[in-house]
Amino acid sequence: MSATETQASPVHQTVRTPDPNAHPARLKADAVSVFYGEKQALFDVSIDLPEKSVSAFIGPSGCGKSTFLRCINRMNDTIEGARVAGKITLDDHNLYDQSLDVVELRARIGMVFQKPNPFPKSIFENVAYGPKIHGLARSKADLEEIVITSLQKAGLFEEVKDRLHQPGTGLSGGQQQRLCIARAIAVGPEVILMDEPCSALDPIATAIIEELIDELRSNYTIIIVTHSMQQAARVSQKTAFFHLGKLIEEGPTEEIFTNPREKRTQDYITGRIG
Amino acid sequence: MSDMSQSAALDRRERVRNGLSRRHRGEAIFRGIGIAAIAIALALVGTLFWQVLSKGLPAFTQATLHLDVTFDEDVITAGPAPLRSDYASAAQYEAAFLDWRRALAGINWAALIEQAVRAEMPELDAEASDIRRLVDNNAGLTLRQMYQDDPALLNQTLNVALLGSADTDNWLKGTIDRSLPDARQQLSAVTRAIADRFAADGVISMDFAWHIFTNTDSRTAPASAGLAGAFVGSLYMMLVVVVLAVPIGVASAIYLEEFAPKNRFTDLIEVNINNLAAVPSIVFGLLGAAVFINYFRLPISAPIVGGLVLTLMTLPTIIIATRSSLRQVSPSLRQAALGLGASRTQMVFHHVLPLTLPGILTATIIGVAQALGETAPLLLIGMNAFVANIPGTPLDQSSALPVQIYLWQGNENRNFFEARTSAAILVLLGLMITLNAIAIFLRTRLERNK
């Protein structure tokens, strides 16, 4: 799909119908708690995240949704004093197992951050970096193909094909975020985590990214943290609502937005808490 | 009600206005103080440069005699140079050549100069010693070297540039009071008369003193004293500093900042590094004398020891500056690398370090410039010894530029060495300004490439 087409698509869409083919969950969390020093930031979160679909985490600021997301590729390891209890399994392998190499894990579970953070290198180098360090490309031509395919999947190739060797930091915010998505895809992950990927973007760039997420879900398990309930409604098949470090309610997106079981969920989606 | 709120608003505006003039006054005063501070600083720097330049620049030209010297065979009695073909073996030739050189050393080369001066001034009535004081003590050596390099000069007459003595230079430049009575002058009345006459005739001219850069220090021939030995000594020290301080400093900074766990032990290390930066340099000199010379038995007065001591001094500067530039790299970049599955080392070397390169480079050059000007620790490891050689290796005895300044400053021939000292200061300042300019150039260049 070309950029002009996606830009023309309306920003606000109606709630998507839930995916008719329920996907099995390979990624499962079991009683996950996170502590920052003495302070507990996440309480006993258990959730199944279906593959090849989009799961959205919503909730007010500081509710623990980002903390939980960062548990999934163990980015919390990089925070001094952070401790994770409980179990997260991918295909029944515990991600917090002693024998698991976190470098390998992050090759399987990619991440896109809140603020677009391309490396201060060329567009090509940005995408090629992951395959390079993981030794995924057998030859130079191989690497080039990976870069081009990844940029195509991220819907960026047409816009940057003439300036692959110019700095990635010179792109617009939305293009930079798609570059970051291409960079994550290039490693060939099974899961892509997105931490409020559109919060620094304007509505048009947001719409493009949302379209992209919808396309990507046919190949990847996508988990997105978002502040915008409309966004969760637009892009996700499953929604989980977090509040004060607890998972309050989870279920098919349509149900959560039309018929929540919990009063707190209802209050949040109608704007009474937030 | 609305009247009241309106009058309250007026009252508020009145109060703001009353405060305004006070605020503007405060701003004007602060601006005035700032401009005054900068003016004072500029005036001080200006005075310093004026002082050093006005005193030091004249030292770069020196009284030089241009005399028609005849290599008279009556004086040069050493005979012709031995020829290789006259001897059966190389060893025999070597021995004969050494004998010839020894004979050359015994020749009264000053007599040639005397002849040349008398030829220039046929009416001259002077003692040999009067003429000898006119030229530098090394002038004879210059002639000897010329003859040794080319024995065919025998009986030829050549116009040779010979350095005037320090006293001649003083007299002609007026750095000695010309109205002083004879008893208090360095040169006899006859010598002074010759100097004045030669200067008027153009036999003595003020030539650029290249030897300041090519000669080593000299006590017997002060006019030909130069900075080459000290310069090379300083260069060796800086080499040692760069080779040791940069890798050690950068590696420790990276480890402490990126890999070390934050605990009491690393806190202690951090505090100690910061303290190290504040230790007076003379203490490092004592440490160097005790450890490198007394314990490790490294040679005294050697650039290697000086370099090691200066390395200790430069390390904290490099570590602190490198750490602060590492800290400036945005966390989002680190997350991007880690999120892709880069290991910590890959993250540091592929992404963080390239961005900190300008900072590290600047820190290094500033640290080296600091070390270049350091004097106190060098005095304690014997680098203030008089050394008349250019060191061949960092293990040879040597002086250093700032120490040379210190030594010349204390020279008893004040009239001559005051200018010489300022000239050495100019060379050192020039070197530092060059280093800083390189630092600024490289930093802007690297930052543009980012």
UniProtKB/TrEMBL annotation, chain A:
A GO term for molecular function: ATP binding
GO cellular component: membrane
Coiled-coil spans in chain: none
Bias (Polar residues): 1-16
Keywords: ATP-binding, Nucleotide-binding, Phosphate transport, Transport
InterPro entries, alphabetized: AAA+_ATPase (IPR003593), ABC_transporter-like_ATP-bd (IPR003439), ABC_transporter-like_CS (IPR017871), P-loop_NTPase (IPR027417), PstB-like (IPR005670)
Segments forming domain ABC transporter: 27-269
Region Disordered: start-end pairs: 1-24
Any one GO biological process: phosphate ion transmembrane transport
Family: Belongs to the ABC transporter superfamily.
UniProt name for this protein: Phosphate ABC transporter ATP-binding protein
Lineage per the UniProt record: Bacteria, Pseudomonadati, Pseudomonadota, Alphaproteobacteria, Hyphomicrobiales
From TrEMBL, chain B:
Localization per Swiss-Prot or TrEMBL: Cell inner membrane; Cell membrane
Transmembrane segments: 28-50, 235-256, 276-296, 302-321, 352-373, 423-442
The ABC transmembrane type-1 domain, residue ranges: 231-437
Record bears the keyword Transcription: no
Keywords: Cell membrane, Membrane, Transmembrane, Transmembrane helix, Transport
GO biological process, one term: phosphate ion transmembrane transport
CC per GO annotation: plasma membrane
InterPro entries the record matches: DUF3333 (IPR024573), MetI-like (IPR000515), MetI-like_sf (IPR035906), Phosphate_PstA (IPR005672)
One Gene Ontology MF term: phosphate transmembrane transporter activity
Domain of life (superkingdom): Bacteria
Topological category with respect to the lipid bilayer: Multi-pass membrane protein
Entry keyword annotation includes Nucleotidyltransferase: no
Main localization, broad class: membrane
Pfam families assigned: BPD_transp_1, DUF3333
Family indicated by similarity: Belongs to the binding-protein-dependent transport system permease family. CysTW subfamily.
Protein name per Swiss-Prot or TrEMBL: Phosphate transport system permease protein PstA
Species: Pelagibacterium lacus
